[in-house]
What we know:
- This protein is of the alpha+beta class.
- It contains 3 helices and 8 strands; from the N terminus they run ααββββββββα.
- The strands form 2 sheets. A 4-stranded antiparallel beta sheet has the order 1-3-6-5, with no helix packed on it. It has a 4-stranded mixed beta sheet with strand order 2-8-7-4, with no helix packed on it.
- It is rod-shaped, with a radius of gyration of 36 Å.
Amino acid sequence: MSTPGRFCSSNIKDYFSNVNFRYMTSANLFLVLFFLLINLSCGEKDTAKEEPPKPQIAVIKFQSESIDAGIVDGKTNVNVDFKFINTGTIPLVINEVRGNCHCVQGTKPEKPVAPGDSSVITVSFDPVGISGTYQRTMTVHSNATQPEVRLYVTGDIHRDPKEKTKKSS
C-alpha cells in the first residue's frame, strides 16, 4: 500500500476518479501535474543496470607454456623466451622463477607488469654432460590468480661422436 499524501502509480487512478477538473483552477492543476511528474517513479529502482565492479586481480597468460628448442649440439646454452601478458586489472608481480635443476636458470621482469602489458621470462639451459632428449621445468611464482605456473623447455642434444671419445679418454 502507498504512503498517504504521496502520488504513487498505484493510487493515481483512485485520485483522478475523485477529482472534478471543471472546478480546479489552473494553479491547482499545475501543482497536481507537477507533483504527479515528480512522484511518478514513486521510489521504483532505476531500470538501467549498473556494471558490477571489476575484480582486482592479476592474470598471467602465456603464449605457450612449453617450447621445443629442437636439436642442439650441446656446446652452447639453450635460450628460450616465454612471452606472456597480464590480462588482469592490477599489476602482475613475478616473485620468483625457479628451475628444476642447477642447469636451468630463469630471468624474470624487474618491474611489475601493468594490466594489458606483456613481458618475457627468459630461460637458459646449460646442456653440459647431457645427451639425448631432455625436458627442463621452470616454476613461476606470482601474485596472479594462478600463483604457480610451470614452463617446459624440451629438445634433443646430438653431440659429435668424436667429442664423446675425447671426453671418455
